[in-house]
Amino acid sequence: QIARAHAAYFLTNGRSKFWGAGFHVEKLINALRDAELSLGRRRAAAPPVLVDVGAAPYNTIGGDISHVLTMASLWNESSATILGFEPGVHPFSRLKDFIGKAVGRPARDCGTDCADDAGQTANVASSDGQPWVVLRNTPLSNTERTVQIANSPGAGDNTASLERNYGVASDRGREVRAVTLDNELRRRGLDGREVLLLKVDVEGHELAVLRGADKAIGEGRVPFILLEYGDKMSPAIWGAMKRRNDATPAAPTPALLEGPSLFRLQRWADGRGYDTYLLGEGDGGRPVLVGATGRYWRDSLEG
Prior knowledge:
The protein has 303 residues and is of the alpha/beta class. It has nine helices and 13 strands. It has helices at 2-10, 24-38, 67-74, 89-103, 181-187, 206-211, 214-218, 235-242, 262-270, and strands at 49-53, 58-60, 63-65, 81-85, 108-109, 121-125, 131-136, 145-149, 174-178, 195-200, 224-227, 277-281, 287-291.
């Protein structure tokens, strides 16, 4: 079962098993909500925050998918505050339209009362006028600064990255203002709230986003982190894949890879009390968690 799930996660099997194509991400988010309800969790403080970093809708057979919309369909305005971050200009515009139509309320651009130098903000308000879904046209990172962002060469806006390995070195980039999750939570009066789910899909910049949430994570307020692991996680693996007529591994073992990697990610997580799993697909499309922590780690998981 684990071997089949592992293969389905990394291989297409003719059915385009890219991030979320089998709806296993949505199924996992659904399972989290079901568990929250079935456990009857009671909070003395305010409802939790749900965060989608890299929130652009993406196309599958049957239409667009947005994990912000998945969250909004499961947590209503009284049960959570939802934050979505998408730095792409066209994806952000699509996201606003998509969310507004789906929830039956427009995502209205925020005025000068919530303006800063980090890009456009749009809110879907709750019945009492407070933000329920907050969409930001800005990237998250480990520090707040002006950065360059660019698409991978020959690819669309959904491939935009802050990492120089994947297109930022090109002259097609543009400058944007990056923020950190810790500071964004503080600015919005959400500091101290539980971030029940932090989902990150940012084309190789995932570890930087996590470092920008050090305070929330260090205080134990982020119980679930869901992020994309792919060829852009490791610049060393990416570089080795792009070498022509050369099958030399990027490093003898994952522990010797330079820069970010799945090995370093699971070590980072282990040091902060998290268990690490790969989200794969088992029989009948059922999501399966493939252990990558402690005794379950094996070098073949690196890809």
